[in-house]
Amino acid sequence: MAETTLIQGGTLVTPDGEIEGDLLIAGEQIAAIGRDLATEGVSRIVNASRCLVLPGLVDPHTHIQLDTGIYKTPDNWEIGTRTAACGGVTTVIDFATQFPGQDVSAALAGRLAEIGALAQIDYGLHMMLTALPADAELDGWMVDLLAAGVPSVKVYTTYRPNYYQDDAALLRVLAAAGRHGVLVMVHCENDALVSAATGNLVQTGQTALAHHGEARPALAEVEAAHRVLFLARALDPSPQVYVVHCSAGGTVDEVSRARAAGQPAIAETTPQYLLLDAGVYAGGHPEWGIMQPPLRAAEEKDALWKHVESGAISTIGTDHCDYTIAQKRLSPRFTETAGGIPGLETMLPLLATYGVEQSRITWSHLAQLTSTNPARIFGLKGKGGLAPGYDADVVIYDPAVDGTIRAERLHNLAGYTPYEGCSVSGAVRTVFSRGRMLVRDGEFIPAPGWGRYQPGHLEG
Ligand SMILES: [Zn+2]
Q1: d(CA 111, ligand 1 centre) in Å
Q2: Is the whole model's pTM more than 0.90, yes or no?
Q3: What is the spatial distance between Cα 75 and Cα 217, in angstroms, rounded to a whole number?
Q4: Bridge partners, residue 156, by sequence
Q5: Which whole-number Å values give the CA distances from 137 to 96, 141, 143, 173, 321, in the listed order?
Q6: Which residues in the chain show pLDDT less than 70?
Q7: Domains of the chain
Q8: What is the reported pLDDT for 16?
């Protein structure tokens, strides 16, 4: 008989609300939830009294072991998934990159080989498209991706020359995706506006990291989102458009308007745009704020929180990117500094503290944003819920432990966190991945190779 674990006496957080009760794990799946479940024959009992029992987080946006060709993060999949598990994240959806001259099947095989026997939690993949083939071949790529369980592609409206897609290329990707039922994730920043603002700063010698925010105005993001949604709307069938890491309220307004008009459109944000602002650039560690899109004016945080509260934002992911502090400080120029920050281990305590405790969202809403919705949107069956038949990806969170975020306590390699010194209510206590205990009382239990590829299959 499969090993069984009874998580006893916790507050179970389901998408529909919180219930006091027990949760029984049998093997890799949740077998039962309810009050006073029987203890006879149970292999292991875990006391969860005064704790929240959450579905494991499904982070739809990570960059573990990233190599952009300029900078390479020093982590691998063992380290990336370790810091994830310690943060209560039991599934990541990362990216495979289709490099020029490569087709998507080769790109996917290459990425899966990198992950190989290292991943300690489950993972899915999106396909990042760079160099597009002719339409007939692009159609073939969409078919291959769906068959491989990769129902989502990502494109960029900026970053010349490597990732940038012009409007004609964007339209081709959107059209092919619409024909095949593939979801299109878009990094939205108007490249001409970003290039002009950056160029002006460079010409006037204003290249210090403090100027990073000015180089990439919010208008550039809002315009690009508007344009992409407009192009998608003109197509029949119209593809699902997923705007990644919305950093400005106006961007989410564009997504909301599209949805109100009946267009399939989804907005994602990240903890950094909800909790940090352009004040970081004027502080002692401007490198902590080097990311694209940049941190915004403080009022944008309020606008984004309102969009979270209203449901206009469907998902929160981390955009985790484990560059070290040495890499972040390598150049004094914002144009050359590695963009991206680590976030996998800090997302849950930050959202618990600044979302739930401050009454902006409920625990159920937190679970929807960070688990249920990403699992549903990207078609990961068995993830994102606490109910019989779901994978036993379960997080026990103790809200009574008051703590402070310190880089030295995190399980990644960056050596810094932009939330250094930030106080948080609660801590991840215990984590199960498909029934296997990966974190016990805050201590990580290594399980390289335990993580399994999770193919995504969109509905409809
Ligand atoms: Zn990203």
Answers
A1: 16
A2: yes
A3: 31
A4: 164, 187
A5: 18, 6, 10, 12, 32
A6: 1, 460
A7: 4-54+388-444 (2.30.40.10), 57-377 (3.20.20.140)
A8: 85
